TrEMBL record:
The lineage of its organism: Bacteria, Bacillati, Actinomycetota, Actinomycetes, Kitasatosporales. The gene is glpK1. It comes from Streptomyces olivochromogenes. It is an enzyme of class 2 (transferase). NCBIfam families: glycerol_kin, PRK00047.1. Residues 266-455 form the Carbohydrate kinase FGGY C-terminal domain. Inhibited by fructose 1,6-bisphosphate (FBP). The keyword Iron does not apply. This is Glycerol kinase.
Length: 507
């Protein structure tokens, strides 16, 4: 039996291939960034061809770095930036347009029109999502309506849609030469087009967006031995390796953090923050601005659902300090700079660059720095940026507790920002609960590997996976209740200042 499982992690800023052993330890990886295309304010795009080329390269290089061959892999999994939308010609693999990224806000008028018409309530009930620029449905509609010839091509069967999991899978399994056009329930649940009860595309929802059903991929369980096919020998692995699992990135992190029981939760700190709470095999309809989504489905078992709070800008706010404000030269320096001050000095930074996601869902919001005094300096701005990451997470935790009745005893965390010890201490202080980081911090890729390994028998069950999870570090709250309450009150005031900044045109 092969000794390793691989995972493609196709993210917002980069693509990587990671290889894990039976204990869930990383044995090799390679990672490459891709361009962020910003044609105008609020628009964010990626080049799908560049993403596929990066995927090909990182798979080849990870094997080379690990001195491994494809026959050493029992299976591979795929995880991805979820709502990012690709429409391509299946005859030749050429995209009709750049991928429209989940952060993109060009579809705000589509979302507003759905809300005004009352169709938003139908979408909430069936898909578990509010009408928002975040999700794929509006992005597909925009491409069909604004890119010449695409609607006609779709009606002839010459234009298909997929999030980046689907795009990578199709290319890995042959592309124009028999590539598999499929996705999993977690990615499908992020489109506004899938019924959470039936786990299938819904004709009424498709009608709201004027999307031909023939464009859409087959929906499969997240972990399945046959559903996703095998890599082509002519591809980057140079051999036929089973593709055993596909999961959207935040659901993959939920699996990697072994949140398999109702009430278990994790928070992933990446470009944005994504807090996911396992709610079991029945969907919980949010009344407080959260998303009802599919957490995972393994084989023929029932789907497991979750509540999710999605935050658009957290780690990317630190990138903004580096790339736009140029007050730091690396993300790690944000901690050093923030430690030069003892608190935020009364300054709050709300990084609503593309509106506010959960629990507010306000596309009219824009970023604001408030409470400034002449006393404030770069250290206070760095501290306020780290606090913004943590306060936005508290907004979601508050909503999650109201929806589910579950009070967190501990928050499991993962992702790049968790390397920032000060930020994680602030998170524990802001929430008033311990924060726990695992030994394997890259749980997104690990979760995809787990799904693939379960499908192929590399791991027997989730109980076995639990035995491999280990805590690396824990942060205990240090703030008093008064500090916590005062800080959060100031944050809520700052959020109010960001609203009604942009006028959303409704057709």
């Amino acid at each position: 039996m092969a000794d390793f499982v691989g995972a493609v992690d196709q993210g917002t800023t980069s693509t990587r291939f990671m290889i894990f052993d039976h204990a869930g330890n990383e044995v090799a990886k390679h990672q490459l960034e891709h361009a962020q295309i910003l044609p105008r304010s609020g628009w964010v795009e990626h080049d799908p061809v560049e993403i596929w080329e990066r995927t090909d390269s990182v798979m080849r290089n990870a094997l080379r770095h690990g001195n491994l061959s494809p026959t050493d892999l029992a299976a591979i999994g795929i995880t991805n930036q979820r709502e990012t939308t690709v429409v391509w010609d299946p005859r030749n693999g050429r995209p009709y347009y750049n991928a429209i990224v989940w952060q993109d806000t060009r579809t705000d008028s589509i979302a507003a029109a759905l809300e005004r018409s009352g169709q938003g309530d139908v979408i909430r009930h069936k898909a578990g999502l509010p009408p928002a620029t975040y999700f794929s449905g509006g992005k597909i509609q925009w491409i069909l309506e604004n890119v010449d010839g695409v609607r006609e091509a779709a009606e002839r069967g010459h234009a298909v849609f997929g999030n980046t999991d689907c795009w990578v899978l199709w290319n890995l399994t042959g592309g124009p030469d028999g590539g598999i056009h499929a996705t999993d329930v977690t990615n499908a649940s992020r489109t506004m087009l899938m019924d959470l009860e039936t786990l299938d595309w819904d004709d009424e929802l498709l009608g709201f967006f004027h999307i031909p059903r023939e464009m859409l991929p087959t929906i499969n369980p997240s972990s399945h031995r046959e559903a996703f096919g095998t890599t082509r020998a002519s591809g980057p692995l140079g051999a036929a390796v089973p593709i055993g699992g596909v999961l959207g990135d935040q659901q993959a992190a939920t699996v990697g953090q072994v949140c398999y029981a109702p009430g278990e939760a994790k928070n992933t700190y990446g470009t944005g923050n994504f807090l996911v709470l396992n709610t079991g095999t029945e969907p919980v309809r949010s009344q407080h601005g959260l998303l009802t989504t599919v957490a995972y489905q393994f084989g023929d078992s029932p789907a497991v659902y979750a509540l999710e709070g999605s935050i658009a800008v957290t780690g990317s706010a630190v990138q903004w300090l580096r790339d736009q404000m140029k007050i730091i030269s690396s993300a790690a320096e944000s901690e050093t700079l923030a430690r030069t001050v003892k608190d935020n000095g009364g300054m709050y930074f709300v990084p609503a660059f593309s509106g506010l996601f959960a629990p507010y869902w306000r596309s009219d919001a824009r970023g604001a720095i408030v409470g400034l005094a002449r006393y404030n300096d770069n250290g206070h701005l760095a501290r306020a940026t780290l606090e913004a990451i943590c306060y936005q997470s508290r907004d979601v935790v508050e909503a999650m507790e109201q929806d589910s009745g579950v009070h967190l005893d501990v928050l499991k965390v993962d992702g790049g920002v968790t390397a920032n010890d000060l930020c994680m201490q602030i998170q524990a202080d802001v929430l008033g609960v311990p924060v726990s980081r695992p030994v394997v911090a890259e749980t997104t890729a690990l979760g995809a590997a787990c799904a693939a390994g379960l499908a192929t028998g590399f791991w027997q069950d989730t109980d076995e996976l639990r035995t491999h999870w280990q805590e690396s570090k824990r942060w205990e709250p240090q703030w008093s209740e008064d500090q916590r309450a005062d800080g959060y009150a100031g944050w809520k005031q700052a959020v109010e200042r960001t609203l009604n900044w942009v006028k959303v045109e409704v057709p």
